[in-house]
């Protein structure tokens, strides 16, 4: 396992991160299964664990709180907040009111006194970033958070936040968490330039493109009954649906990538994970395995690095900065809604 510095923090984190979106009913993982996966990740050299309050409605954090007892100091623990955690009007977003309540909830579920990295799960266009930074700065001073980060931010939002921190002398975001894979390269267009400009680390999620880059989903074939897509509703099942016309170009790219991986003596998942390690602005890739077998197989490729020839061949299949499916971008900005794009008569 390679270790890289998270932005300018001096904090060394593993190039693979354990994502725990499958801990809890979202992944049907019991606490016992989650403990085995945590053991495997730590044995494989992973030292950062990423979760969120919204994962399985808090169950992911609760499971982590139980299985980290006695070894909390052995891991760097990251969580996220801001997504809806109830039906209340103010049970979501990045307001000072909700951030402070959300952090207290995460601390309670995680059974810890502090969070190493607390990330805003997505932008909140109804809240001024200064308001969010004020709340996060208070929590840093109180010792409840050590570092702060963002997730799914656009390049201009990263820049605005950095300028606000400098102007108002608040804590500043040290990392961004964004979707990135061979099939979804939109962050290369400007986001990675912005994070590099401000010395931020970058953790990427969905490096296997929702499972498409495992090779287990094929055009014209039904998904396997035991796959995550088969048990999922909404975006994930749509992203990999072999009968969806919009996915045709993705399946064609996957077939070419499968051939490329074979010629290089690699599995497709190892090729895909190694691709995320090749960009100079990316610190780590989040591994969101559903089973211990998937995690073990992924960890086998943690030290694979791709040659320039292979990277050039990938660029020929999916050009830099290009995303083949808008659904994989992770977050649809409010300003793309019809009422924000049109002058209504």
From TrEMBL:
The residue range of the signal peptide is none
**Ranges for the NADP-dependent oxidoreductase domain?**
17-317
Q: Name one Pfam family in it.
A: Aldo_ket_red
**Keyword hit for Flavoprotein:** no
Question: Matching InterPro entries, A to Z?
Answer: AKR, AKR_Detox_Biosynth, NAD(P)_OxRdtase_dom_sf, NADP_OxRdtase_dom
Q: Which residue spans adopt a coiled-coil conformation according to this UniProt entry? A: none
Query: Sorted alphabetically, which keywords does the UniProt record give?
Result: Oxidoreductase
Q: Which superkingdom does the taxonomy of this entry point to?
A: Bacteria
Question: Which PANTHER family does this chain map to?
Answer: NAD(P)-LINKED OXIDOREDUCTASE SUPERFAMILY PROTEIN, NADH-SPECIFIC METHYLGLYOXAL REDUCTASE-RELATED
| Protein name per Swiss-Prot or TrEMBL | Aryl-alcohol dehydrogenase-like predicted oxidoreductase
Organism of origin is: Paenibacillus peoriae
